[in-house]
Request: fold
Amino acid sequence: MYIYSENGSGKGNINSNMKLKLIILCFFLVIPSIYSGSFDQGKDLFLNNKPVEAALYFEQALKEEPGNENIIMYLGLSYIQSGLTSKGISYFLQGADLNGIQKGRFYLNAGNAYFAQNDFENALAVYDLIIDGALNEKGDALLNRANILMSSEDLPGAVEVYRQYLIARPLSEQKEKILRLIALIETKLEAEALEVERLAAEAERLRLAEEKRQAEEAADIETRRLAEERRKAEDAARQQALMDEILNSLSNIGDETQNISADSEKIIHTDEDSDIDD
Reply:
């Protein structure tokens, strides 16, 4: 990722030794006599990789020439390279508000600084200001937007924006690399789509197999239920037949008892008649 200066060639190089640079900053703050009010002195320090000292001169130069785009640009870059990213971004946005010829570059540097901090939301918002405003830096904004989408694993979105970049920058030196990247992404997306289809088909097969198993299990349960009902009905019928047979047997025994009793009465009557005769 590049942070552009007034000629678009400066590459951001954030020094990690923040503690030392803050001490240097405090030291210069207590010695105001070093200020010469010269923008050139600040620029010389900046180009010699002394952004902390350079920022002090640029601050003084901005007081002398408020609204000077070049001073604000270098001031923002100095703070970025000093590790004071938020302060650098604030100057870039301040420069963009001037609506001067470097408006797009200010926005681009602010977006790149956000990007470097993994603040993708603000980076995208600033890039969109460039894209929607059709500023000169639209191509760079599109490329960085596509890179953010790649980082966010939004591959379809990244491909779309990469294509927009190639339309905006048809002669880009990175064209072949981007085309290869697009081809790789599309191959990956196609493979993922096929895998999704395969998994969906497998899920459907398993669902149908489970439905079939459940249907067969339900049919088996129903078959066993019907068989059990038939068995119970047959048992009930046999029990009823046995009860009917026993009942019929009991009825026959009653008839025989009545016959025996009647015969007995006849015998008794015969005996009585015999006694009377005697």
Observations:
- The mean pLDDT is 81.
- Residues 175-277 form the longest helix (103 residues).
- Residues 155 and 189 are 8 Å apart (CA to CA).
